[in-house]
Amino acid sequence: MNTIKYLLDEDKMPTHWYNVAADLPTPAAPALHPGTGQPLGPADLAPLFPMALIMQEVSTERSIEIPDEVQQIYRQWRPSPLFRARRLEKALDTPAKIYYKYEGVSPAGSHKPNTAIAQAYYNKIEGTKRLVTETGAGQWGSSLAFAGALFGLEVEIYMVKVSYNQKPYRRALMEVYGARVVASPSTETACGRAILAEHPDSTGSLGIAISEAVEMAVQRDDTKYALGSVLNHVMLHQTVIGEEAIAQMEMAGDYPDVIVGCTGGGSNFAGLTFPFIGAKLRGERDVRVIAVEPAACPTLTKGKFTYDFGDTAHLTPLVKMHTLGSTFVPSGIHAGGLRYHGMGPLVSHLLDLGTIDAVAVQQLETFSAGLQFARTEGILPAPESNHAVAATIREALRCKEEGKSETILFNLSGHGHFDLQAYMDFQAGTLKDFEYSDEEVAMALAGLPSVG
């Protein structure tokens, strides 16, 4: 009756990833070639990704086997624990039951190794020697650096400059794993030099960092690009989270009425929710799903659902997603992993279908929620994860007001041990809220590409 954690044995770890594309009532729009405007073929993506990942990107198979070598590495931290947040429930005096899936137990401290390991594996077996990527807060960069070390791959990372300066210890972790880390925008690429010429004090953005990484990746035949969110194959690799959570909720004799996840590009959100959404789409179990984003980067709540580039320099394919425009540069909030102008196409498509809901939360509310969580549950969440904590607390208090005993499940996507300066700033009262007006969003959207 008083169980706190639900643990699966290693032999219960998922052996297959779940692909939500198999259960969509209407398929997501295809990615388009940036030059021709025509749907992409596998050959168009070959300069960037190994063929195995390209085929996963376009697959509509419901179940895709996880390679044995990837499963073996997963076992270092998977299955991850599911916790019942009993002390938080008591502090909120809510009749709601709150559960959280904790991904901070991975070596890199977040959910990101679930795809980093898979991407490094597929690149290794297809002969790649070097991976180039971008990172915001550094969760993805440290995860790919970790994966590169395991598979003997050289890793080069363009880190958004505001986070490069805000999070020196996350940068140090990447370097410990053997990666080379460059502040973006940099003078190493044509894209970076052009941006610095126009904006010498640019704090950077994920769109800019992606442009730099892609530009470097296509220059060498032994090099590929790796992306930590947004794309379908990344969402696919993360679904081990939700598959485990379904089994753990069965252990608890419960099932969520509400599922919450923070969203930047959508990977941790998709990882937890997609297996549950699949059951909903198949008519098996209903659930309300909430995507939570920063008010400072309101992609789902204020962005437009249309075709856009994934990067600032327009080197990437065009994908249909909720976007604020590829030139959008958000304020330097501490949730660096959520500062991206676009949302993953599959997450965007599900919002357009009405399958999920979206809310935006201000920075100060998220840090207040993170402190309350740390002081009750003992785990310090990452600034990104605080968005899910804040929305969960909102839902729990709603249950209190309505006198409803609903079950809430959220993804605690990573720990905040490298983000203590942000918590210090919050407690010192120096953090600020940021919100973009409709007029500012309209200006950012003015440069969207024209797609027939």
TrEMBL record:
Task of the protein: The beta subunit is responsible for the synthesis of L-tryptophan from indole and L-serine.
Substrates-to-products reaction catalysed: (1S,2R)-1-C-(indol-3-yl)glycerol 3-phosphate + L-serine = D-glyceraldehyde 3-phosphate + L-tryptophan + H2O
Its EC number(s): 4.2.1.20
PANTHER family on file: TRYPTOPHAN SYNTHASE, TRYPTOPHAN SYNTHASE-RELATED
Family matches, as Pfam families: PALP (PF00291)
Pathway assignment: Amino-acid biosynthesis; L-tryptophan biosynthesis; L-tryptophan from chorismate: step 5/5
UniProt-listed HAMAP family: Trp_synth_beta
Top-level taxon of the source organism: Bacteria
Species per Swiss-Prot/TrEMBL record: Oscillochloris trichoides DG-6
InterPro entries, alphabetized: Trp_synth_b-like (IPR006316), Trp_synth_b_CS (IPR006653), Trp_synth_beta (IPR006654), Trp_synth_beta/beta-like (IPR023026), TrpB-like_PALP (IPR001926), TrpB-like_PALP_sf (IPR036052)
Family, as annotated: Belongs to the TrpB family.
UniProt domain Tryptophan synthase beta chain-like PALP: residue ranges: 76-414
Keyword Lyase applies: yes
Keywords noted in UniProt: Amino-acid biosynthesis, Aromatic amino acid biosynthesis, Lyase, Pyridoxal phosphate, Tryptophan biosynthesis
Name listed for the protein in its UniProt record: Tryptophan synthase beta chain
Subunit record text: Tetramer of two alpha and two beta chains.
Needed co-factor(s): pyridoxal 5'-phosphate
GO cellular component terms listed in the entry, alphabetical order: cytoplasm
Modified residues (N6-(pyridoxal phosphate)lysine): 112
Molecular-function annotations in GO: L-serine hydro-lyase (adding indole, L-tryptophan-forming) activity; pyridoxal phosphate binding; tryptophan synthase activity
PROSITE patterns registered for this protein in UniProt: TRP_SYNTHASE_BETA
